[in-house]
Design brief:
Blueprint: E1 22-28, H1 44-56, E2 65-69, H2 83-94, E3 102-108, H3 134-140, E4 150-156, E5 168-170, H4 173-178, E6 182-183, E7 193-198, H5 210-221, H6 227-238, E8 248-251
Helix pairs in contact: 1-5, 5-6
């Protein structure tokens, strides 16, 4: 007998449901201290504004959206995206999380093939302990998601497809619609639903915010878009020649063609 992967349950709730909590953390880091060839040559405030507008349009209150960035955040002063700052806000995001809650985490910056991300105080020449490691994200965010709660992450970074090490990988809208994902062994275990929308594969590169702008612009035009249609759009929009650099989605449950970001 062929065992089918567990189906994804999205736990959709009305925005009028007062028991539902929506919280988000936006992290943007250009890492000016690392070699110039790796600098992200864009204004991080633009990416922050795009993600914030997307979230506020989906019912996230401004007071429940925390920004850690080197750039400006409109009238507000963002928090510094240091190692301690990022860890603290991952804990804030998941604190008191319960069934029905929608949580969102965005990271734009540099990442490693080990699944680590680089905070503002990361030193390229120092011990890798200065990175926010995969285990840090597991311990302080993923493992704290309860059953019935959903965490959606967007990583616009090199090696983004490897972030969180989720079991089911979808490299095309066809894979979602057909229910034919690639799978990982020794994948991250989580009680809630974890979905990662990645700018590229685990072996790929993403040096600009073209992925973020393409994804957010599309979702602004089509707020009820499915994961499948959004993935198809950004792949076509970026038009990258190397398959490693194509966006992908990963999840700890099985995705379906009509599953979307939020109602």
């Amino acid at each position: 007998m062929i065992r089918q992967p567990p189906q994804l349950i999205l736990y959709r709730f009305s925005l009028k449901d007062t028991n539902m909590v929506k919280k988000a953390v936006i992290v943007n880091v250009s890492n000016r201290l690392i070699p110039s060839r790796l600098h992200r040559r864009v204004d991080t405030s633009e990416a922050t504004a795009l993600v914030r507008a997307f979230l506020e349009g989906r019912g996230f209150r401004s007071s429940n959206i925390i920004v850690l960035s080197e750039g400006d955040d409109g009238d507000e002063i963002p928090e510094d995206p240091t190692y301690d700052g990022i860890i603290d806000r991952m804990r804030w995001l998941t604190r008191n999380a319960r069934s029905g809650d929608e949580l969102f985490f965005y990271y734009g910056g540099h990442g490693s093939e080990r699944g680590d991300i680089c905070p503002l105080d990361y030193s390229f020449f120092d011990d890798p302990a200065t990175r926010v490691k995969a285990k840090d994200m597991l311990d302080n965010m993923v493992s704290r998601i309860p059953e019935g709660c959903r965490l959606t992450t967007v990583f616009d970074t090199c090696h983004a497809g490897g972030m969180l090490n989720l079991k089911y990988r979808y490299g095309s809208s066809k894979a979602i619609n057909d229910g034919t994902p690639m799978t990982r062994s020794n994948a991250t275990s989580a009680r809630g639903v974890i979905i990662n929308f990645a700018a590229c594969s685990k072996q790929g590169s993403s040096y600009k915010y073209d992925f973020t702008s393409g994804l957010m612009d599309y979702l602004d035009e089509k707020p009820n878009a499915s994961f499948a249609s959004a993935l198809r759009h950004v792949i076509n929009d970026l038009n990258v020649s190397d398959s490693k650099d194509k966006p992908e989605i990963s999840c700890n449950r099985h995705l379906h063609g009509t599953d979307s970001f939020f109602d």
